[in-house]
Specification:
The longest helix has 21 residues, at 173-193. It is built from three helices and 22 strands. Helix content is 21%, strand content 30%. By secondary structure, it is of the alpha/beta class.
Length: 198
Amino acid sequence: MKTIYLQVLGEVWVSFQYTNISELEEEFAQRGIEVGDGCELGDGCKLGDYCNLGYDCKLGDYCKLGDGCKLGDYCNLGDYCNLGYGCELGECCELGDDCKLGDYCNLGYGCELGKGCKLGNGCKVPKSLFISASQHSVSYWGYDAIQIGCKKYTISEWQKHSREIGKAEGYSEEQIDEYGFYIDLIAKLHGRWNIKQK
């Protein structure tokens, strides 16, 4: 038996017990909530009014979706994720545990956010890439910049100076080569996606 929380009168969260999602069809319909086939909801999730979950979405335990959230097919949210009002996630997005998105965030197809990521209100991420690498994570958010750990430079700056930066950060030669591969991969994707720097 699982518990889900739905709003009553648009304000108060009320718990509902269920074994199969189909048992909640009437409650969902009253609130304009649509849940695609094959979806799995973790225990203690909260779904705001007018949420729309595509096929085969998976929500971890205690996720909260604000009113009007839309998740594309095959999205996967870790435990304790919190999405503000009107957030939209493209197909195949993956959010790690404890991710928080502000109101009206928009993530494109296949976005991946690691554990504990936070995005503010109105954030738009059309194409992105997140790599959990050997030393520091690598982030690319669709414009001409790459962030590795706490350092953020343009793609061309990384390509020119990655060896020096890696040595200064105490990376081994193998790690410098590893990160060089990631930088070159992102450069190719950036060129292919034709995203203009804002």
